[in-house]
C-alpha cells in the first residue's frame, strides 16, 4: 500500500520559464532556507547543509548513506582489494551521493534567486521518479526507455563482439563470491536499484539541472541542449579505461557517440517536460538498470558485480 501511494504521488513540477513570473511556493521556501543557512564548509559533507536548512529527513538520509557507503567501500576493499567490485560499487555510489548533495544545494540557491529553468523537484521526489505512474505514463519516458534499451543492447553487442550466453542461468558471482541463485539474483537487483538511483539522480542534476539550465539562461535553449549533450558524452569517455584494450577503439567509435545521443534524448525529455528532472531521471535509471540486468542475466559470472568493476553508460 505504501509503495502504491508513493508511485501515485505527484513528483513533477514545472520550472520557472519567465524571469518576471510570480514566485512559486518552492522558490519562496528556498529563499527562506538559504537566508537561514548560507553555504559553508558543510557543503562538502553529504546532508549537512540540507539538515542546516531544515530538510532534516533528506539530510539524515544523505549523511547515513554517506557513512554506510564509505564503510562498505573500506570493508570491501580490505576483504577483496580496492580494485574489486566490493569496493568499487560503494565508491561509485559515494561519489554520486556527494555530487547530488552538492548540486542540490546549488539548485536551491538558484531557486532562491528565482532563476529561470531551475528544476523544482526535491531529492525525495527525484528518488521516486523512476517508480512514479505520473512519470512513467508519459510517452517521452516509456518510449525513451524502450528505445534506448534496444539500442544499448545492440551497441553493447558491437563493442563486446557479440553476446555471450554460455553462462546464462548459472550461479552468479557477486563481489568475488559464487552465490546460490536464489540469493544472488535478488541481491544483484537490489545493488542495481541502489546504485543506479544514485547515478541517475546525480548525473541528471548535474548535466541537465545545472549545465543545461545554466546555458539555457546564458545562451538559448537549443544551444544549451546541444552543449550539455556533448559534455555528457565526453564525460563518459573515461569508461574506456575500464575496458579491455581490444574493445577500446570500438567503444570510442560506437559507444561514445551512442552515449552522446542518449544524453541528447535525456536533454530533450527534460526540455519537453518543462524542465522537470523527473522524466530524465526515470529514463536514465531504467536504462542503466535494465542494460546491466541484461548483462548480468546473460553472463552472471562475469558481470560488473563479479571481480572487477567498470562504469555503466
Topology:
Blueprint: H1 2-8, H2 25-36, H3 48-52, H4 56-80, H5 85-112, H6 123-128, H7 133-136, H8 139-159, E1 173-174, E2 177-178, H9 181-218, H10 221-235, H11 245-272, H12 278-298
Antiparallel strand pairs: 1-2
Helix pairs in contact: 2-5, 4-5, 5-9, 8-11, 8-12, 9-10, 9-12, 10-11, 11-12
Short description:
This protein has 313 residues and is mostly helical. Helix content is 67%, strand content 1%. The chain has helices spanning 2-8, 25-36, 48-52, 56-80, 85-112, 123-128, 133-136, 139-159, 181-218, 221-235, 245-272, 278-298; strands at residues 173-174, 177-178.
Q: What keyword list fits this structure?
A:
12 helices, mainly alpha, 2 strands, disordered C terminus, two-stranded antiparallel sheet, 313 residues
Biggest beta-sheet profile: 2 strands, antiparallel
Helical residues, percent: 55-70%
**Category by helix and strand content:** mainly alpha
Q: Nearest-angstrom radius of gyration? A: 20 Å
Amino acid at each position: 500500500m505504501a509503495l502504491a501511494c508513493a508511485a501515485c504521488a505527484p513528483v513533477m513540477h514545472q520550472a520557472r520559464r519567465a524571469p518576471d513570473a510570480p514566485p512559486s511556493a518552492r522558490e519562496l521556501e528556498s529563499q527562506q532556507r538559504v537566508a537561514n543557512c548560507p553555504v559553508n564548509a558543510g557543503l562538502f559533507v553529504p546532508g549537512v547543509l540540507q539538515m542546516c536548512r531544515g530538510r532534516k529527513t533528506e539530510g539524515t538520509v544523505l549523511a547515513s548513506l554517506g557513512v554506510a557507503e564509505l564503510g562498505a567501500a573500506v570493508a570491501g576493499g580490505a576483504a577483496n582489494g580496492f580494485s574489486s567490485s566490493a569496493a568499487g560499487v560503494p565508491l561509485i555510489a559515494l561519489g554520486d551521493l556527494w555530487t547530488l548533495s552538492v548540486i542540490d544545494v546549488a539548485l536551491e540557491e538558484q531557486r532562491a534567486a528565482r532563476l529561470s529553468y531551475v528544476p523544482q523537484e526535491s531529492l525525495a521526489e527525484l528518488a521516486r521518479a523512476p517508480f512514479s505512474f505520473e512519470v512513467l505514463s508519459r510517452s517521452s519516458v516509456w518510449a525513451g526507455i524502450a528505445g534506448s534499451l534496444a539500442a544499448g543492447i545492440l551497441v553493447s553487442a558491437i563493442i563486446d563482439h557479440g553476446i555471450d550466453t554460455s553462462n546464462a542461468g548459472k550461479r552468479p558471482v557477486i563481489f568475488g563470491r559464487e552465490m546460490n541463485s536464489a540469493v544472488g539474483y535478488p541481491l544483484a537487483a537490489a545493488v542495481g536499484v541502489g546504485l543506479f538511483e544514485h547515478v541517475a539522480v546525480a548525473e541528471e542534476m548535474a548535466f541537465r539541472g545545472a549545465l543545461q539550465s545554466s546555458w539555457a539562461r546564458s545562451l538559448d535553449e537549443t544551444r544549451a541542449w546541444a552543449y550539455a549533450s556533448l559534455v555528457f558524452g565526453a564525460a563518459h569517455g573515461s569508461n574506456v579505461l575500464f575496458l579491455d584494450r581490444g574493445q577500446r577503439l570500438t567503444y570510442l567509435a560506437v559507444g561514445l557517440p551512442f552515449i552522446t545521443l542518449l544524453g541528447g534524448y535525456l536533454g530533450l525529455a527534460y526540455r519537453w517536460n518543462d524542465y522537470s528532472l523527473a522524466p530524465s531521471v526515470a529514463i536514465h535509471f531504467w536504462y542503466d538498470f535494465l542494460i546491466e540486468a541484461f548483462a548480468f542475466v546473460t553472463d552472471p559470472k562475469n558481470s560488473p558485480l563479479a571481480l572487477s568493476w567498470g562504469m555503466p553508460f
